[in-house]
């Protein structure tokens, strides 16, 4: 059966490739430690699970929700006001997404025509490029370089590209690069977007996962941001609700209205009990988020300190649930990831999967308990792939 030409832009995900390779090599190790997929390894808070069960027992819980329930939208607005000092109209400036990927992939279909340019962080979350391909737009990659604190250099964007750009995707704290944007950078973004009439989409899925008290800045908290953009968020990472597929898009009312109209032709909303539970967690989940931050920070420290002790050059991330690590010279990121599978039974994600600038790095997800991360470091050390201990690199 003939496939559409647009499918030429898609291939099996890197995670499918890693899984297949690991299966092929399964005889090599008794213990496997998977640090590749960024899916929380712990359940949601008990009160969230209890809420889902309670609402699922309501006899009227199983109909379509269409536009989303007002209680959920109001909870999003209350959360933004409390957490970020941002005022949102729950009626016109908030809408649901079935997980943030829903919005990230579909927004280009609403706001970009075939041939338009979409500005993407490089390396970046693969869903951005998938949305560009579906809209038949043209990606233009914004390199995230260490010397620029892994922030894109807007001044390096050619004038002709800026004039053709319809959308700019940003992701801070980031995936795979756990960089954090500054308010001054976001002010530059607002000015740039206004000058060239570009829609800014801020992916803020890791906004609650920050360490050492360094709370990330919401793009919408910057003056003028709502004039040019929206922010998309999810309950997947911060509240361990990845399988629930609950998220939201908020900000510019015109964008929200157009996206909601588009969505009304695609689906019939999020399961009512999940929206009710999501409203509760947004209003009462601050303590749970604080505990999650402590847990991830402890995992980060165990992993970063351990990797530094065996000679791996790695920075201590300020936020997010990933470590972005340089690989030794002489390897591609894919060959190195496969070597770790072969020699250590540890699975990480090669950086090339996130874009051209990801080559030379691997992404390591903090999705295992501290004792498992210590065993992972010991297994990596036993490979002999790393330099001598270099604690000064921490």
Could you characterize the architecture of this molecule?
With 394 residues, the chain is α/β, with parallel strands linked by helices. The protein has 2 domains: 3-41 and 285-381, Alpha-Beta Complex (Aspartate Aminotransferase, domain 1); 60-283, 3-Layer(aba) Sandwich (Aspartate Aminotransferase, domain 2). It has 13 helices and 12 strands. It has helices at residues 14-24, 46-56, 70-84, 100-111, 126-134, 159-164, 183-196, 225-228, 253-263, 272-284, 286-309, 333-344, 370-383, and strands at 33-34, 94-97, 117-122, 138-143, 165-170, 199-203, 229-234, 247-251, 322-326, 346-347, 349-350, 361-365. The chain has a 7-stranded mixed sheet with strand order 2-8-7-6-5-3-4, with helices on both faces. The protein has a 3-stranded antiparallel sheet with strand order 9-12-11. Strands 1-10 form a two-stranded parallel sheet. α3 (70-84) runs parallel beside α10. The protein is globular. The chain starts with 13 loop residues before the first helix and ends in an 11-residue tail after the last helix. The model is unreliable at 388-394 (pLDDT under 50). Belongs to the class-I pyridoxal-phosphate-dependent aminotransferase family. Its EC number is 2.6.1.-. InterPro entries: Aminotransferase_I/II_large (IPR004839), LL-DAP_aminotransferase (IPR050881), NHTrfase_class1_PyrdxlP-BS (IPR004838), PyrdxlP-dep_Trfase (IPR015424), PyrdxlP-dep_Trfase_major (IPR015421), PyrdxlP-dep_Trfase_small (IPR015422). GO terms for molecular function: pyridoxal phosphate binding; transaminase activity.
């Amino acid at each position: 059966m003939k496939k559409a030409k647009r499918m030429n832009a898609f291939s099996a995900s890197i995670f499918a490739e890693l899984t297949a390779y690991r299966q092929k090599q399964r005889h090599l190790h008794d213990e496997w430690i998977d640090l590749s997929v960024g899916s929380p390894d712990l359940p949601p808070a008990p009160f969230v699970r209890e809420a889902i069960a309670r609402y699922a027992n309501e006899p009227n819980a199983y109909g379509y929700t269409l536009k989303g329930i007002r209680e959920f939208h109001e909870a999003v607005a209350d959360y933004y006001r409390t957490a970020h000092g941002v005022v949102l109209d729950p009626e016109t400036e908030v809408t649901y997404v079935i997980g943030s990927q829903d919005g990230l992939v579909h927004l280009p279909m609403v706001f970009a025509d075939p041939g338009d340019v979409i500005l993407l962080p490089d390396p970046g979350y693969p869903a951005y490029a998938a949305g560009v391909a579906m809209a038949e737009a043209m990606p233009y990659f914004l390199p995230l370089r260490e010397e620029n604190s892994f922030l894109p250099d807007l001044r390096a964007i050619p004038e002709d590209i800026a004039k053709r750009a319809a959308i700019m995707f940003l992701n801070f704290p980031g995936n795979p690069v756990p960089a954090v944007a500054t308010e001054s950078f976001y002010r530059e973004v607002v000015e740039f977007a206004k000058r060239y009439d570009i829609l800014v989409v801020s992916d803020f899925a890791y906004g609650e996962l920050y360490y050492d008290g360094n709370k990330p800045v919401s793009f919408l908290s910057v003056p003028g941001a709502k004039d040019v953009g929206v922010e998309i968020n999810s309950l997947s990472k911060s509240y361990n609700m990845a399988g629930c597929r609950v998220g939201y898009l908020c900000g510019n009312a015109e964008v929200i209205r157009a996206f909601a109209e588009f969505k009304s032709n695609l689906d019939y909303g999020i399961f009512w009990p999940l929206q009710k539970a999501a409203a509760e967690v947004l209003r009462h989940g601050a303590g749970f988020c604080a505990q999650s931050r402590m847990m991830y920070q402890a995992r980060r420290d165990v992993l970063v300190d351990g990797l530094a002790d065996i000679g791996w050059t790695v920075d201590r991330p300020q936020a997010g649930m990933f470590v972005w690590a340089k690989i030794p010279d002489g390897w591609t990121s894919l060959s190195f990831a496969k070597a770790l599978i072969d020699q250590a039974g540890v699975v990480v994600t090669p950086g090339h999967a996130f874009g051209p600038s990801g080559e030379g790095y691997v992404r390591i997800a903090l999705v295992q308990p501290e004792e498992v991360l210590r065993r992972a470091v010991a297994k990596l050390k036993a490979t002999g792939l790393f330099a001598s201990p270099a604690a000064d690199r921490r």
